[in-house]
Amino acid sequence: MINVEMMASVLEALPDPAFILSRSGKYVAVFGGRDTRYYHDGSGLVGLTITDLVKTEKANWFLGQIDRALATGKLLVEEYELSNRDVKGLSDEGPVEPIWFEGRIQALDFQVDDEDVVLWVASNISERHQLEVRLRELSDTDQLTGLYNRRKLERDLSGHYQNFVRHRVPTAVLMFDLDNLKQVNDAFGHHVGDDMIMAVADMCRSHLRQNDTACRFGGDEFVIALPNTGHEQASQFAERLHQSFAEKLSRFSVGASTATSSVGVTIMLPADGSYEDTLKRADAALYDAKRLGKDRVVFAD
Ligand SMILES: Nc1nc2c(ncn2[C@@H]2O[C@H](COP(=O)(O)OP(=O)(O)OP(=O)(O)O)[C@@H](O)[C@H]2O)c(=O)[nH]1
Prior knowledge:
It catalyses: 2 GTP = 3',3'-c-di-GMP + 2 diphosphate. The protein is α+β, with helices and mostly antiparallel strands. It contains nine helices and ten strands.
């Protein structure tokens, strides 16, 4: 039979730390946390309260979770990060990487010092979290250029469309396609065509603001979403980009087949039923730019 002493030693041996926390955020008891790869010794926390240790905003989040677990009586699972910025008394210098935890929080059916209490088991999931972030980045990124891919663009455009409908935030969309890439490939080889595509990606990056999204839409076709951008600004941006492509890509030209770009531009309009309507209009403008002889910007509205 397992007796009380044995039970206490089992609790102490737990690899993940288990806290008993009161409704007011007091550390009533701390067990385990013996896996020193991931955890500091938490025994010194007993008797302190969360608000003594953690800055107000984060402390309020912890108290909110305790309240929620007590109200529902169900197991609550929450992921959260803690960095030295969140802990009182530490300087903002030092490692900036936060530690990510999965907290599993369960109301207990007894009180301590007339207060309701929960069991809070914290597991260090930093490695898993980093892997998830990296996977998300990879699934949103075009391999050759490092620009975003179509999936991420569509997500962003969907958000911009909501902002346009609800708050009338103007958004512009540029779709462009390289001129004569086939001749570049045929004359110099596919790897030079790749260099041209990568040069375009670098130029996009250098022209964009933080919230703009540039994506490789297909082979030599790209789309840029410009939130908070109206007709006039979008036209100027497109002309500037087109000009800078012409200057920087001229070294790829094959005789009369110039290494230039054709650009279609539009903005979200009240008649658009979704961002797809905006995208279709940009595509039609791009088609017109090609039809009219390439190497130009066409605005559709
Ligand atoms: N090097 C390279 N070429 C690509 C890549 N993706 C697509 N292409 C080529 O780009 C060309 C795209 O077709 P088009 O747009 O009709 O070719 P284009 O010569 O640019 O024709 P215009 O757009 O009419 O000027 C095809 O020849 C594809 O093989 C890529 O990743 N690398």
